[in-house]
Here is the input.
Amino acid sequence: MSAPARAKAPQEAWDTLSQAERDAAYNNNAAVADSAAWVAARDAAAAAYRAAHPARLDIPYGAGARQKLDLFPGAAGAPTLVFIHGGYWQRNSREVFAHYAAGLAAHGWSVALPGYSLAPEARLADIVAEIGGALDLLAHGGRGLGAGGPLVLSGWSAGAQLALMHLDHPAVAAGLAISGVYELAPLRDTFLNAALDLSDDEIERFSPLRLPSSGKPLVIAYGTGEVPALVHDSEALAARRVAAGVPVSLRPIAGANHFSILDALRDPAGRLARAALDLVSGVLR
Here is the structure.
């Protein structure tokens, strides 16, 4: 695998940056000029999709108000994509990402979208544990729910970090990490830490770039229009897996920004939908 040359990531000269520059390095909304329009269109499309597929929504996997998942069942025995939403562990919900199930649903897959508690009400350790609970429900009760095939664990942005925390779950066959944050230390120096209040222990335990690489196949995707910090993390994670000799495919999505990249999952022929299909077929390109 050869990675394209990129602009320097903030991590490479972090101490030289002003507070405003550090905040901007991880501010995806500010980096996309029409992000508000993207979010509004996303929310409307998701509401329409949930209304059209109401059968298996709000399935509890724990006692918390947000410890629920939506399941869009596919063909019997088909694979299941588990998609974890992002929002820097402090905003968004599973409901506003429902329509991204459409791409793999067109191939007969089931798609599950777990919710989770948000910071500051929940610590990062609690959030990570909640995703494990959702996977346990799918592993032990998935067939009865309509999700009996192999699980491909995916996530976007903060959801990609959460997915990587559970790639070694026994029910998970492979992973698809999209536009993720894989080193948490810089976040402590940004506006995002007001809610997260990251500790040294959390940074060490939950930064994928500091952890051993799972041997399970993984596709790492990012948009070429993303902020450099996320591009840096994606390329660094892929390089780390190459060095460890474990299966990985790095897939830059040309021209995509942090919001538009998920259209490649919604589209049945999109590169992210194809990536999930490749993971199940055992072909990593």
About this structure: The chain has eleven helices and eight strands. The two ends are 10 Å apart (CA to CA).
